[in-house]
Amino acid sequence: MSEAPSPQRSASTRPRPASGIPRWDAECDVVVVGFGAAGASAAIEAANAGAKVILVEVASGSGGTSAMAGGDIYMGGNGGTEAQRANGFHDTTEDFFRYMMMAGGPDADEERVRLYAEGAHAHFQWLKDQGVPYRNTYIPGKPVMPGTGDCLILSGSEYAWPFKESARPCPRGHLPEAIGETGGFMLLDKLAKRVHALGVDVRFQTRARALVVDEANRVCGLVVYADGEEKAIRARHGVILCAGGFALNEDMLRQYAPIRQRLANDGLSGGYDDGSGIRLGMSVGGAAIHMDELFVTLPFYPPESHVKGILVNDKGARFINEDAYGGRVAHFIASQIGDRFFLLVDDAIFQQPSPYAKIEIAAVGSTWEEVERELGLSEGSLVSTVEVYNRHAAKGEDPLFHKDASWLKPLDEPPFAALACHLKQAYYPFFTLGGLRVRPSGEVLTIDGDVIPGLYAAGRTACGLPRWGKGYSSGMSLGDCTFFGRMAGRKAAATPIADA
Amino acid sequence: MSEAPSPQRSASTRPRPASGIPRWDAECDVVVVGFGAAGASAAIEAANAGAKVILVEVASGSGGTSAMAGGDIYMGGNGGTEAQRANGFHDTTEDFFRYMMMAGGPDADEERVRLYAEGAHAHFQWLKDQGVPYRNTYIPGKPVMPGTGDCLILSGSEYAWPFKESARPCPRGHLPEAIGETGGFMLLDKLAKRVHALGVDVRFQTRARALVVDEANRVCGLVVYADGEEKAIRARHGVILCAGGFALNEDMLRQYAPIRQRLANDGLSGGYDDGSGIRLGMSVGGAAIHMDELFVTLPFYPPESHVKGILVNDKGARFINEDAYGGRVAHFIASQIGDRFFLLVDDAIFQQPSPYAKIEIAAVGSTWEEVERELGLSEGSLVSTVEVYNRHAAKGEDPLFHKDASWLKPLDEPPFAALACHLKQAYYPFFTLGGLRVRPSGEVLTIDGDVIPGLYAAGRTACGLPRWGKGYSSGMSLGDCTFFGRMAGRKAAATPIADA
């Protein structure tokens, strides 16, 4: 039996000198830690390149957190993927690049974004080659995990200010053909089958405990815990950390991502996002960056009609264009003073919110004055906000926050309602975006920019394409996991530590 | 000659194995890196405890960034310091503790805050014992670096919402007796004299380059660069990193503190805040935490009367109680969408802003409508904000943001003006608050919470009392530097590496 998983406890990851390893229990070229999308992709490419690969996974099966996702992968460029073109969307590499640079925020990694923008088109083919099935169908509007087996969806803020001003918008979320919210499971199932078919030595219920370093501070192996004891695995080409993020490690969240304390629900995870990959990387001097950034979203749509509502804080004031992606909206909510937030709707646009969003009706009235009073807001605060909004919306304008005209209508059809999107009550799913600083090749860097020989990272153990919560678009994480997981696998396979 | 300082470049800090050190050029018990307030305090206490101390400093003289400060130290508790009592202020340890816990933000370090709250009173005496002169005089109001030689000032958000609701307010900033803005220089001059008097081996123009680790991963020395070559110093008790923050390292700021990109001016520094101390700590697995947090302030007061004005964003909306400390205000400014911000004043409260604040008049009008139009804001947006504010202010209330009644008055005496507090134009001084995770003893911790034997940090190389920009109060950093610098010095002096 492996030790019981305890994501809250941060087990020691201090590195072990190779000189202190009594014997190697196994030897290979590349050790991959973690069997989610990044680890599977890394293992496939390393094995394809002829490397002998051992993949260790703490859980009893493959999939990790990736398998719980909708399976959406953010792709485009080169004129458009097959799915984009089939639905009349032309997507240039430059538009795709510019959107992802904006989405990456103030420290977007230009080299990484460029490689992805140019390579995503071919990556789509690679995914199909691994057996992942895709239709070429498109669902219009703003669906979230539709579960219909259709492929193309709008999954970010492409059509919203300020993104639409710099990059020609286009839907870029690509879902596998899977019924129900099982796209991630489908994706991971196909990748896992490929890993096994390639003869990768997969070891489940095996926890990565510490990196092994040689006298020149190169990573040359991994100490794992399995079957009740520690074992040492020699890795002639190094170790690729693909162990996910730290959404379950409350200790790390407290120190790195204070926004988490404003949210009531647990982080999204397959059960093992304890930050172990990041901690292993830090133990040998790897720099963890953008650790304060979370993906967090408020699923206030669907129903899509609610995008025509307006979001206000407890001062009765707006703070964001409501047609931005729910993830961007949630960040602007969390950066306001106060915990109470409301989505204002009128009779024309109201529909029952998704039950899983935990958005309840906070107040109803035949006038906005009544709603304001029932919410206990300061006299005139909410009323004047609605009045200003309605006046401009009637002209198809939103001079304050630049919401697109297609979502503008005066909220003037009573009865009116305020839906509670409170931070401590509504469902704000989250996972972590910060991680080890890496080159696109997966090579882990110190804060000085030095490569740590023999150490690679991919997926949410690394800080990759998605590194800014306000810019996250659905599908960016799995896109990053699979694309740069592959690159790390290839680089490690080609690089014996002696040459690193 | 030592190498030219190049704060922008992050020189490699990868650790050196002791087995690779050909010979020790010097040996001692404790090496202290950096001769600012933290390093001086550490060296004094280590030497007082009988340790042989070498202090290395990259600059040609002592003082560091601390010497550039106003010299304010945040102290209180135990019924009040001599200066507080002399001016009629009673300050309980619990009020002091609670304020500092709030000021430390969502991850305040309770153990550290408790020690400081209980010990600051005696620390004041220690500072006097080192020769730092203090008067017992008090300057009322909200002065910032008065430069009069008076002692006690209000230096935070003590009397502002929400702080005043949880901790009985009291002024706690203590300035040395120094004329002009030379309090920090005075403080550092006295501490430096003490360091020299105690026989500490001080080496200027000496850059810390890499830590030396023994076979058990303990820090047992330091490689420095001086006189054109590398030298190795053996430290039988370890190394204390007191090398300041990373306010000048744009590479680190980009990766850790994106708020910096919204500010036009350079970081506050004595010239060497290149993050070298933090980077050295990370090189051996030390965890750097809260690296996204900066102290940043907008000096919109003095003139104190401007606290009676209201701050609005480019939507014409308020977002903060304007009687909060300028540092808290600046963070709420930087978290808004848009770069344009205005302080609205009427004829009764307008005075010329401090020239160094770079706050200019953006618009003037005989009505608020005129001002709104001249600023190009959306019709009614600013006018309705002022109208709501004035209506409540006339009753001595601010139901939206809870500004204290003493600062409330309707802005109704024309002419009216909007002063430009734009992020890219006004002066927003900043320095970094993130740093190595440490125990109060200065022992550096990994992200797993393991102590790295032989490694200590204090001052802005560590993440200490001040770790939340929205809560920073003037004097917290120097208080942390001196108090916990002393603790690190004592702990290192008492702990040979073999016992660590």
Secondary structure category of chain A:
alpha/beta
Mean pLDDT of chain A: 95
Rg of chain A (CA only): 24 Å
Number of strands of chain A: 20
The end-to-end span of chain A amounts to 36 Å
Oligomer classification: homodimer
Major beta-sheet overview of chain A: 9 strands, mixed
Strand content of chain A: 15-25%
The residue ranges of chain A in which pLDDT falls below 50 over 5 or more consecutive positions are: 1-9
Overall form of chain A: elongated
Most extensive interface between two protein chains, with residue counts: A-B, 57 and 57 residues
Topology:
Two copies of one chain form a homodimer.
Chain A: E1 16-17, E2 26-33, H1 37-48, E3 53-56, E4 73-74, H2 82-86, H3 93-103, H4 110-129, E5 152-153, H5 163-166, E6 173-174, H6 183-197, E7 201-203, E8 207-213, E9 219-226, E10 229-241, H7 250-256, H8 276-283, E11 288-289, E12 294-296, E13 310-312, H9 326-334, E14 342-346, E15 360-365, H10 368-375, H11 381-393, E16 416-420, E17 430-432, E18 435-436, E19 443-445, E20 451-457, H12 476-493
Parallel strand pairs in A: 1-8, 2-3, 2-10, 3-7, 10-20
Antiparallel strand pairs in A: 4-6, 5-6, 8-9, 9-10, 11-18, 12-17, 13-14, 14-16, 15-16, 19-20
Helix pairs in contact in A: 1-6, 1-12, 3-4
